[in-house]
């Protein structure tokens, strides 16, 4: 009987601890159809990448030209898209939303509008 009470108490404690975590969700918005670096890509890069990639770690992602180069000649898309094995997945804090990744890919395919 004591084991049963202990088991129920244990399960209740674990359940309450798990249910008390906070979660944040990105706001749902319409997909960007004509992304530009300044309006769309740069805020994402600043929020997710330049904490590490601001000149101290390669690639430098602090300017339009650096980000464009990392997308054209590097593996920026592969690292954030996470669908291929191309090295360490970025950002290390967790994946960007599919909508954000798709927007950066669209920026690339539409010719890197500034």
How many E strands? 0
Averaged pLDDT, please? 83
Portion in beta strands:
under 5%
SS-derived structural category: mainly alpha
Give the termini separation.
70 Å
Instruction: Give the helix proportion (percent range).
Output: 40-55%
Determine the oligomeric state from the structure.
single chain
Radius of gyration based on Cα positions: 20 Å
SSE pattern, N- to C-terminal: HHHHH
The largest sheet, given as strand count, sense and whether it forms a barrel, is: none
Q: Tell me the number of helical segments per DSSP (H or I, 4 or more residues long).
A: 5
**Which segments are poorly predicted (pLDDT under 50) over 5 or more consecutive residues?**
none
What characteristic shape results from the CA principal axes? elongated
Describe this structure in words.
It contains 5 helices and no strands. The protein has helices spanning 2-19, 37-48, 64-72, 76-81, 98-109. Helices cover 50% and strands 0% of the residues. The chain has a domain at 34-110. By secondary structure, it is an all-alpha fold. The model has no long low-confidence stretch (mean pLDDT 83).
